[in-house]
Amino acid sequence: MDSQMAASTDAAQMVLKVPFVIGVAGGTASGKTTVCDMIISQLQNQRVVLISQEAFYHPLTAEQLEKVHEHNFDHPDAFNTELLLSCMEELKHGRGINIPNYDFKLHRSVEPARVVNPSDVIILDGILILHDPRLRDFMNMKIFVDSDSDVRLARRIRRDTVERNRNILNVLDQYSKHVKPGFEDFIRPTKKYADVIIPRGADNDVAIDLIVQHIRTKLGQHDLCKIYSNVFVIQSTFQIRGMHTLVRNAKTTKHDFVFYADRLIRLVVEHGLGHLPFTEKQIITPTGSVYSGVVFCKRLCGVSIIRSGESMENALRACCKGIKIGKILIHGEGKSGRQLIYEKLPSDIASRHVLLLDPVLASGNSAVKAISVLLSKGVPESNIVFLNLISAPEGLHTVCNKYPRLKIVTSEIDTTLNKDLHVIPGMGEFGDRYFGTGSRVITPS
Ligand SMILES: Nc1ncnc2c1ncn2[C@@H]1O[C@H](COP(=O)(O)OP(=O)(O)O)[C@@H](O)[C@H]1O
Ligand SMILES: Nc1ccn([C@@H]2O[C@H](COP(=O)(O)O)[C@@H](O)[C@H]2O)c(=O)n1
Ligand SMILES: [Mg+2]
């Protein structure tokens, strides 16, 4: 008996954007916040938010306030870690939150609360941010800022007297009673959880550059699949890398380019077909045995984005006999708007699953236009599977943010776009190389 089954992912399900979370710990005045600010200023094209653990200090009771000099702010119990955990859970699920706005002069939070929007990167900064294992579990990267304790004490005295209205004798007293023991007992022991230790804090430009590079790489490449659960990169093998090496090589002849591009396209198409819904079916084999299998989705069609997308039509026809293939031609260069020049689509496209074909996803502007044409014809967003050979992170961000319900299947995610919006490292002008109409090599910029 046939039964309708859901596809590998529920088409109607909203896509989860999981942020890249970085924890930055270290002793007081080690430079944690300064390091975080430097990282943020270098991650200009990402949505980054900084959350300080200090926002989650328990407010002091009237009784505790009277003896504030005895209060230990350097102990894990000083923080409302449960609240921080629930805030992280919200952000992880793409929901904005309000966090307390802590005042170091009043030892409590003040109005208004701080609004924190969902972001691509969340940086958590605090002396004991690596202490609780449940918080560490949220983190993709853990950093410990390691600065000399004399330097830290000097900075702390300066900061607390100048910015936090403290008396120097109280600062020194608090330091020896709570801050130093808290560092030895709870903060320094979390250094072992760090993936990266930054000696000299913000003075260590090299370490900060390496961290930023790592975050960019993680965000730009396969971790995009963590951020966007609708992005699927086909499993990399040496065979696939070898084919990419050939098609990306500027010296590869047209004949070889077409041969290896076709092989890669075929893999992407087969993978893309795996994201369509199917129907369960039992059959009898020649041995008389029952085999529980599935039947392919029948209501589908291809749509190629002219001209490069046409290179993917043969592979689609080879996989799906007699498939209808429509075409869309978009005009536009650079960052300016895109215009629809031509479209020829199956008249019943609204009732079909659509495999949208374009070997290179660069800025995502043409893709967004092409997808909007499909939507205007009544195709549900969740019925679209967009197939690429290579995708730039910028294009993935653009398309996934605008259309979180469609799926993108690609064989590799590249590093970035250059100023001319060419994918880097990329493979040059795909259409020219495939159809033999150009010999231009794009120089790196
Ligand atoms: N490398 C540095 N050189 C000079 N001053 C620094 C440096 N790093 C931090 N500071 C100063 O030290 C103080 C504490 O730094 P901050 O980044 O707030 O530390 P933390 O967040 O670890 O407590 C601030 O006044 C800051 O401007
Ligand atoms: N009301 C408070 C709360 C905290 N502290 C001290 O702040 C330090 C943590 O902040 P850093 O920016 O230095 O990491 C911590 O050592 C607490 O002693 C405070 O003095 N008063
Ligand atoms: Mg700080």
Automatic annotation (TrEMBL):
Keywords: Allosteric enzyme, ATP-binding, GTP-binding, Kinase, Multifunctional enzyme, Nucleotide-binding, Transferase. It comes from the Eukaryota. Signal peptide: none annotated. SUPFAM superfamilies: P-loop containing nucleoside triphosphate hydrolases, PRTase-like. It catalyses: uridine + ATP = UMP + ADP + H(+); cytidine + ATP = CMP + ADP + H(+). Pathway: Pyrimidine metabolism; UMP biosynthesis via salvage pathway; UMP from uridine: step 1/1; Pyrimidine metabolism; CTP biosynthesis via salvage pathway; CTP from cytidine: step 1/3. InterPro entries: P-loop_NTPase, PRK/URK, PRTase-like, PRTase_dom, Uridine_kinase-like. The keyword Coiled coil does not apply. Residues 21-207 form the Phosphoribulokinase/uridine kinase domain. Its EC number is 2.7.1.48. Residues 236-437 form the Phosphoribosyltransferase domain. It holds the Pfam family UPRTase. In the C-terminal section; belongs to the UPRTase family. PANTHER family: URIDINE KINASE. This is Uridine kinase. The lineage of its organism: Eukaryota, Viridiplantae, Streptophyta, Embryophyta, Tracheophyta.
